[in-house]
Design brief:
Strand order of the largest sheet: 1-2
CATH architecture of the domain at 69-169: Up-down Bundle
Structural class: mainly alpha
Helix content: 40-55%
CATH class of the domain at 69-169: Mainly Alpha
Bound molecules: glutathione
Radius of gyration: 17 Å
Shape: globular
Number of helices: 6
Largest sheet: 2 strands, antiparallel
Number of strands: 2
CATH topology of the domain at 69-169: Glutathione S-transferase Yfyf (Class Pi), Chain A, domain 2
Distance between the termini: 15 Å
């Protein structure tokens, strides 16, 4: 999102494998001990959805998060999808395969497939999740969907979602995140 907005930034890596996110220093930034955290001047902000809302409002004008109530509500509903459905399915299954985190794998993969079916149907007659241009709805949902193969979910089974992933990758100033 920082890149899409053309904002200069520095990425400070936190080594999750050795547990740097639970260090006393990092817990001052996010007491929940998780990345990402955004530091912008005096502001320290945790959680990706909150960070997207802040960046869109502060630096993105109307385009990435419309302020008209109905459009705003429609965009924000997908931030909830990213934090719940996507996190508890695609992300959980990915953690199982990459880190061996114990979970109900079958349940997570089933939920992942259902979530992708819903999004695939939603995208049938549209290029972007809401409005007729990219918003933070797309950016919030994109990461774990793009990483679906890590969760052993075949993204090609969802043609509208696959085409949407390609559209996001073609956005000006798009950069892949580590892990892609
Ligand atoms: N609600 C948070 C969840 C963030 C999250 O799950 N972060 C993971 C990496 S993607 C993490 O820091 N895991 C390390 C840990 O929980 O110890 C968000 O959306 O930003």
């Amino acid at each position: 999102m920082l890149s899409l907005l053309g904002l200069e930034h520095e990425i400070i890596r936190v080594d999750l494998i050795v547990g740097e996110q639970k260090s006393a220093e990092f817990l001052k930034l996010n007491p929940f001990g998780q990345v990402p955290v955004l530091i912008d001047g005096k502001l320290v902000l945790r959680d990706s959805q909150a960070i997207l809302v802040y960046l869109a409002r502060q630096y993105g004008g109307e385009s990435w998060l419309p302020s008209e109530p109905e459009a705003m509500g429609k965009v924000l509903q997908w931030l909830s999808t990213a934090a719940n459905e996507s996190q508890n399915s695609l992300s959980a299954a990915r953690r199982f395969f990459l880190l061996g985190t114990p979970i109900d794998l079958e349940g997570a993969q089933q939920k992942a497939r259902y979530t992708l079916e819903v999004i695939d149907k939603h995208l049938l007659n549209r290029d972007w999740l809401e409005t007729n241009h990219p918003t933070i709805a797309d950016i919030a949902c994109y990461p774990y969907i793009e990483l679906a193969s890590d969760a052993q979910i075949v993204l090609e089974a969802y043609p509208q979602v696959s085409a949407w992933v390609t559209r996001i990758k073609q956005l000006p100033l798009y950069v892949a995140m580590p892990g892609f």
